[in-house]
Amino acid sequence: MDTFGAKTDPAILLMHGAGDTRHAWDDAFCMQLAAAGRHVARYDLADGPDLDALVRQALDRLDELGRAHLVGLSLGGMVAQKLAIAHPERVASLTLMSTTAGGERPDDWFGDPWRPHLGEITAPTLVIHGADDTMFPLPHAHTLAHEIDGAHLLVLPETGHEHPPRRHWDTVVAAIVAHTA
């Protein structure tokens, strides 16, 4: 696990998507969050065997950080949702990026295995989604924002299924910092 910023600042745990590593969260992006007064941690999600194992792995990271703000992109967002449902006491807030309330396999991504439980999420939630996401089109973000009580939605124009492009960093960092205040 890599960390940025002072350990005394509020902790943010960044979770990447499938096929990526922790380095998909660019060092400069992490440093921008840290400069705004956040203790940022990123780690490599395991290659399986299933979503529950990834939740357990995230809990291990939280054992090191304490209660934290979760920022999950794509698969990392699925892990963050399940963790927030099962262990709400560990989650200070939730930021869901380019994700879905779908299942574990690509064939299930457009299903709703935990959608009935989204209303159980008590952590303040921010949904950030690219307007041009073709893997999880924008209606997935609308579902998350609608089903999670009090969730806010930020749509990034001309953005697909990806980590926030550099041109949106100021907007995304400001939104995350405000959300985790």
Automatic annotation (TrEMBL):
**Which SUPFAM superfamilies does the entry link to?**
alpha/beta-Hydrolases (SSF53474)
| Alphabetical list of InterPro entries matching this protein | AB_hydrolase (IPR050471), AB_hydrolase_1 (IPR000073), AB_hydrolase_fold (IPR029058)
Q: Which key words tag this protein in UniProt?
A: Hydrolase
List the molecular function annotations (GO) for this entry. Answer: triacylglycerol lipase activity
One Pfam family of this chain? Abhydrolase_6
Query: Which intervals hold domain AB hydrolase-1?
Result: 12-111
Q: Which Gene3D superfamilies match?
A: alpha/beta hydrolase
Any one of the GO BP annotations: glycerolipid catabolic process
Origin superkingdom: Bacteria
Q: What protein name is recorded for this chain? A: Alpha/beta hydrolase family protein
